């Protein structure tokens, strides 16, 4: 169960990184956070690969892996995150996360047609149980968010971007170091953000974010945790079905419940507890069936 365990570890990584990166976005803005965190991730990953591979940059990547991972970076790290933050602004995090919950289903469908990966019926039941629990928790959250058709389109595009990114990462990461894999897919995303920021003439916002000490602290902490989470996700896909990995990695709304109780003193409803229990049953099926 190495793949499933690593996928859960990735989910814990999303929980920790989302807390810090949300704080950073309030300090410096989402565009600055997106670019700065990718640059910091390259530095952090370079330090790791220098130690464990003797190579600062992924210069040994094959042409085939470079092709797939570059597409993965553009879909997942640039387009996916770009539309994700736009969806947050238009329809808020609750509805956005609700749409993103369906990414594992999209990943399973894509992996069936692109990777020719099949999944057992009982595993599908486990996926549906897990996703149902997540949906229950997200729908319970109260908010003043208004619905926007454009915002919903942004959320769907973010979900599809993430899903395609996961599948192409799987295609490009076979027999290649997981840390180097993230490096390769990060480079085209950085270049895409640089072109976009230059086109929009928003470099002053990036500069303001870079000199904000509190924002940089949050971005640094969030980046380190997120990088380890993404690496765990890549490694997990080498050992388990990508649909299952994607489902387990999407359980952060469930995993954040105890943190919300202990750290933020939030009150949790009975329905949220039920949703968490349903997801727990679904997760358990991946480990015992």
Mean pLDDT: 87
Q: Any low-confidence stretches, pLDDT <50, length ≥5?
A: none
What is the general shape? globular
Alpha-carbon distance between the two ends: 11 Å
Please, how many helices? 12
* DSSP E strands, number: 0
**Structural class determined from secondary elements:** mainly alpha
What is the alpha-carbon Rg in Å?
18 Å
Layout of strands and helices, then pairs:
Blueprint: H1 2-28, H2 30-52, H3 63-100, H4 103-115, H5 121-140, H6 149-172, H7 178-200, H8 203-210, H9 213-236, H10 242-249, H11 252-263, H12 270-288
Structure description:
The chain is mainly alpha-helical. The protein contains twelve helices and no strands. It has helices spanning 2-28, 30-52, 63-100, 103-115, 121-140, 149-172, 178-200, 203-210, 213-236, 242-249, 252-263, 270-288. Helix 2 packs across helix 9 (213-236), helix 3 crosses helix 7 (178-200) and helix 4 packs across helix 6. The longest helix has 38 residues, at 63-100. It is globular, with a radius of gyration of 18 Å. The mean pLDDT is 87.
Brief sketch in words of this structure:
With 289 residues, this protein is mostly helical. The chain is built from twelve helices and no strands. The chain is globular, with a radius of gyration of 18 Å.
List keywords for this structure.
289 residues; mainly alpha; 12 helices; 83% helix; 0% strand
């Amino acid at each position: 169960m190495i793949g499933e365990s690593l996928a859960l570890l990735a989910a814990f990584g999303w929980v920790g990184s989302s807390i810090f990166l949300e704080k950073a976005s309030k300090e410096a803005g989402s565009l600055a956070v997106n670019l700065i965190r990718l640059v910091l991730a390259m530095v952090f990953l370079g330090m790791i690969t220098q130690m464990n591979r003797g190579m600062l940059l992924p210069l040994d990547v094959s042409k085939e892996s470079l092709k797939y991972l570059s597409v993965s970076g553009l879909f997942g790290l640039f387009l996916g995150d770009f539309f994700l933050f736009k969806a947050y602004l238009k329809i808020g995090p609750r509805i956005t996360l609700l749409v993103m919950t369906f990414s594992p289903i999209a990943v399973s469908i894509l992996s069936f047609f692109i990777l020719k990966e099949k999944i057992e019926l009982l595993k599908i039941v486990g996926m549906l149980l897990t996703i149902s629990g997540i949906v229950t928790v997200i729908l319970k959250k109260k908010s003043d968010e208004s619905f926007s058709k454009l915002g919903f389109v942004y959320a769907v595009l973010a979900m599809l971007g993430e899903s395609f990114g996961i599948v192409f990462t799987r295609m490009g990461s076979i027999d290649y170091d997981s840390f180097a894999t993230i490096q390769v897919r990060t480079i085209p995303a950085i270049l895409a953000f640089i072109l976009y920021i230059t086109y929009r003439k928003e470099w002053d916002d990036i500069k303001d974010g870079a000199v904000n000490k509190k924002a940089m602290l949050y971005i640094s902490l969030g980046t380190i945790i997120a990088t380890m989470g993404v690496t765990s996700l890549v490694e997990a896909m080498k050992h388990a079905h990508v649909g299952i990995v994607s489902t387990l990695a999407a359980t952060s709304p469930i995993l954040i419940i105890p943190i919300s109780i202990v750290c933020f003193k939030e009150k949790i409803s009975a329905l949220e507890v039920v949703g968490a229990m349903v997801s727990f049953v679904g997760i358990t099926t991946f480990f015992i069936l």
